[in-house]
Amino acid sequence: MNPRKPYVRPISKTSWFMTQSRYKVYMLHEISSLFVAIYSAILIIGLVRLGEGEAAWQGWLDAVTSPIGVIFHLIAFVFALIHTTSWFKAVPQAMRIQRGEEIVPGKLIVGAHYGVLAAVSLFVLILAGVA
Amino acid sequence: MSERTIELEVLRYRPEQDQEPFFQTYKVPCEEEWVVLDALNYVKEEMDRTLSYRWSCHMFVCGSCGMMIDGEPKLACKAFLKDYPTGKIRVEPLSNFPIERDLVVVLDDFVEKLESVKPYIIPKEERTVEQGEYLQTPAQLKAFKQYTLCINCLCCYAVCPQYGLDESFVGPAALALAHRYNMDSRDLGRAARDDVVAAAEGIWHCSFVGACSQVCPKDVDPAGAIQQAKFAHGIDYLTSFLPGGKR
Amino acid sequence: MQVIEADVIIVGAGGAGLRTAIAVAEADPKLSIALLSKVYPMRSHTCAAEGGAAGVIKSNDNLEYHFHDTVSGGDWLTDQDAVDLFVNEIPKELLRMEHWGCPWSRETSGNVAVRPFGGMKIMRTWFAADKTGFHMLHTLFQTSIKYPSVKRFDEYYTVDLLTDDGACYGCTAIEMRTGQMRQFRGKAIVICSGGAGKIFPFTTNGAVKTGDGMAMAYRAGVPLKDMEFVQYHPTGLPGSGILLTEACRGEGGYLLNKDGYRYLQDYGLGPETPTPVLKAMELGPRDQLSQAFWHEQKKGRTIPTKWGDVVHLDLRHLGEKKIDERLPLIRELSAKYVDSDPVTTLVPVRPVVHYMMGGIHTDIHAATPLNGLYAAGECACVSINGANRLGSNSLGELLVFGARAGRGAAEYAKKGLTAPSERLDALAADSEARVKAWFQRTQATDRVPDLKKRLTTAMEDGCGIYRDEATIKAACDIIVDVRERFKNVALEDKSSVYNTDLYQTLEMDAMIEVAQTVAVSALERRESRGAHQRLDHVKRDDEAFLKHSMAHYNPNGEPRIDYLDVVITKSKPAERVYGARAGGQSAA
């Protein structure tokens, strides 16, 4: 007779991510993409409205500058920041650059990403006439 | 001689008499310099002969003593008591694996996965001993060396939620090992490994939680290896649309 | 009892066992192979070997040099025909490892790099940073997966050999997760079960190294050869006994006493030089370095600590870059275990039991006197190590003689010799009864952990770096007493699934056998040679003892010792020369 009886510990399919803080951080990162997606969708709708004429465009502008619109954009901005920083942090793992016998330090790769982000942001702000 | 007494809470499970696991607490007189494994050995020798766990080298290289220590997967020989100032330490078998008994888990699934990724050189060109060694520069060695350091302790599987939720996932250590051979300048076996590696249960099952790399006691970075493999496959896919590309 | 049949059975899946399995599979893919091990292959203690594997490959080197280094390093107790083929076959074996993917450290040209090692006249030690054994083990394990004829039985504890009329036909082994015994029948059996460092209290060896295979062969009537030669490695971490590789000194590390003085120059190993010279100072042989420590201790020039006296290993002048590239594990282990980062701090070290030169008697084909039984690796004694093994010869040994054992066993298996199955069933039933007896005993007057402490302490006290008649006799007496008391232990754990109380008890059984052969062989060898140093017989005595000790099992008492001539072909016994006179190459 086989005396084995391996015990499988149950894992919750719906709340597993609450068991460790690193899983929560991961879920936060995953959720942040939702807000980035909604923000992008709003932006695309804006473009469509722009093509439909001035009234449509003004309606869209009114919607995004309404209190609800502003609150959403503030929240979306925070999530966009979370999304960006968490991705940038992970980049050196996915993008391993070797120069000769040396691996390019992760900090350099992350730094370069922030540099490009800053440059593009500045360019857009200048384009928008803010800066 | 003893300098400190700790409370070791150990998850016990004896399949022949227990319906489910339970915690048993041992008060262990410890030396300052000890690791958790030393405390377990004390229990085994002086307090309870029925406690079962795996261990051997006591120097972070055989990979036997991976277990959950205060909820984190660690090598018991690398978990120093001085890092647990409260004096209460909870020890459990590695998560995500069936418990065979006490701290011993069933490893069959992992071993099958390791074997499935063809973890051996599939050479570019057969070479005889008389022809001498393959030339491999230090830079070429560096390209895969990190991924050779895995000791199969399985801390990465214990912390991977994807593996915990769906054990069909090939998992971090096995995929990192496949990447190790794919990156070796002596090897041309990537296509042969792709049956398993590039399948849905392979690299694409990984959602880059990254926990595996955080807990790896040898800094192998399996998460990095998997993302790099995905990247390489992405490039392959895109270039397949170019003229002359293989689809 | 379930019967499992295979053409070749291999007991032990460390470096030697895996190499054997591959050799059998390559010799004839039709032969079925059962590879048994009490641990998963990657847990085997080969993984703890750090420094490297010696093999002649560079143009400034030649096989004769390696031959002479090995023979004189072993104080002429080596069999020279074995050493000859050993140095000849190693480079090919190491190249095979390269072809199988072993991540050897490289020169900028892409060729394999070599590093200096103790007792070697030329730099010839291939290495993979300071995890050479680990990489070799994983390379062999992963390569073995390629051969479908290799069927592994992971976590099977082998208990007894099945022998009949001067030949071996299999073994019994317990499947550890069910506790059920299986009968393995084979046409050839190879033991690759490793050494027995655990018969000492302070050792670099892992928990698995309890001499099981040695004891099994011994009980089956195969003599254990040269068991008194136990290697102390000069640099172990105090407390844990963790090994700090000889490569620390190969790369240029110093050994300092409490005055910061490189004391080895006082023991015929000088003069001191700032950069390493092969065969001199810190690159002398392990036996002499460990003995020098003992003398420093007697002179009061060591440093007392809670974990015993130590000297210091100084790596600071190597610099962080070199330490990280060549000795990363050493840095990690020192920092974690003794809180000393070698980049900035002196590391405390002391001699620690590391390796058994002796083992199961085999010929140069790895065959034992028992037909059908082979042995390779640390459990075996061919003998290429004689009275003192040179660092980086053991990884080579497990490849060369693992491969030879595999080829020999494959050839032998084709003869297809078997014993009557009723006979094997009866032997297996005896074996099972022997194990069951542990479960049935209820009244225990002694406990295994206590007896183990008593045994290992006796070994350290009686069979340490220096020995004499009185201390060895005292150890012998304690072993006899422990053996007697061991009959009165009972299992506290009577369960079937992964019962480690049972396996530790079976290991203790093996340790008693092996310890007794060490002590009695040491008592009978009334001379000093290599790692066997007698305070009451301080000179080497070639007249009486240029011979291998052969310990034969005696069911009624202590082992019977007789002697076997050493094979000498071209190197007549002479003085071992180290230091300036040895003419070693500069390793700067």
UniProtKB/TrEMBL annotation, chain A:
A Pfam family hit: Fumarate_red_C
Coiled-coil ranges from the UniProt annotation: none
TM region positions: 25-48, 68-88, 108-130
The organism's place on the tree of life at top rank: Bacteria
Keyword Cytoplasm annotated: no
InterPro entries recorded: Fumarate_red_C, SQR/QFR_C/D
Keywords: Cell membrane, Membrane, Transmembrane, Transmembrane helix
Gene Ontology CC terms, in alphabetical order: membrane
Segment forming the signal sequence: none
Protein's recorded name: Succinate dehydrogenase/fumarate reductase subunit C
Native source organism of the sequence: Candidatus Defluviicoccus seviourii
Lineage: Bacteria, Pseudomonadati, Pseudomonadota, Alphaproteobacteria, Rhodospirillales
UniProtKB/TrEMBL annotation, chain B:
Enzyme Commission designation: 1.3.5.1
Positions of the Succinate dehydogenase/fumarate reductase N-terminal domain: 8-111
Gene3D superfamilies: 3.10.20.30, Alpha-helical ferredoxin
Name of the protein described by the UniProt record: succinate dehydrogenase
Keywords, alphabetical: 2Fe-2S, 3Fe-4S, 4Fe-4S, Iron, Iron-sulfur, Metal-binding, Oxidoreductase, Tricarboxylic acid cycle
GO BP, one annotated term: tricarboxylic acid cycle
InterPro entries, A to Z: 2Fe-2S_ferredoxin-like_sf, 4Fe4S_Fe-S-bd, 4Fe4S_Fe_S_CS, Beta-grasp_dom_sf, Helical_ferredxn, SDH/FRD_Iron-Sulfur, Succ_DH/fum_Rdtase_Fe-S, Succ_DH/fum_Rdtase_N
Domain (4Fe-4S ferredoxin-type): residue spans on this chain: 149-220
Cofactor: [3Fe-4S] cluster; [2Fe-2S] cluster; [4Fe-4S] cluster
The gene coding this protein: frdB
Subunit comment: Part of an enzyme complex containing three subunits: a flavoprotein (frdA), an iron-sulfur protein (frdB), and diheme cytochrome b (frdC).
NCBIfam families: dhsB, PRK05950.1, PRK12385.1
Enzyme class: oxidoreductase
Gene Ontology MF terms in the entry: 2 iron, 2 sulfur cluster binding; 3 iron, 4 sulfur cluster binding; 4 iron, 4 sulfur cluster binding; electron transfer activity; metal ion binding; succinate dehydrogenase (quinone) activity
Pfam families: Fer2_3, Fer4_8
Family: Belongs to the succinate dehydrogenase/fumarate reductase iron-sulfur protein family.
Automatic annotation (TrEMBL), chain C:
Residues where substrate binds: H233, T245, H354, R389
Record-listed FAD binding positions: 12-17, 37-52, 212, 378, 394-395
GO CC annotations on file: plasma membrane
Domain FAD-dependent oxidoreductase 2 FAD-binding: 7-395
Membrane topology, as annotated: Peripheral membrane protein
Coiled-coil segments on the chain, per record: none
Main location: membrane
Keywords recorded for this protein, A-Z: Cell membrane, Electron transport, FAD, Flavoprotein, Membrane, Nucleotide-binding, Oxidoreductase, Transport
Fumarate reductase/succinate dehydrogenase flavoprotein-like C-terminal domain span: 453-578
The enzyme's E.C. designation: 1.3.5.1
Signal peptide annotation: none
PROSITE patterns assigned: FRD_SDH_FAD_BINDING
Database matches in InterPro entries: FAD-dep_OxRdtase_2_FAD-bd, FAD/NAD-bd_sf, FRD_SDH_FAD_BS, Fum_R/Succ_DH_flav-like_C_sf, Fum_Rdtase/Succ_DH_flav-like_C, SdhA/FrdA/AprA, Succ_DH/fumarate_Rdtase_cat_sf, Succ_Dhase_FrdA_Gneg
Intracellular or extracellular location(s): Cell inner membrane
Protein name: Fumarate reductase flavoprotein subunit
Species assigned in the record: Candidatus Defluviicoccus seviourii
Gene name of the encoded protein: frdA
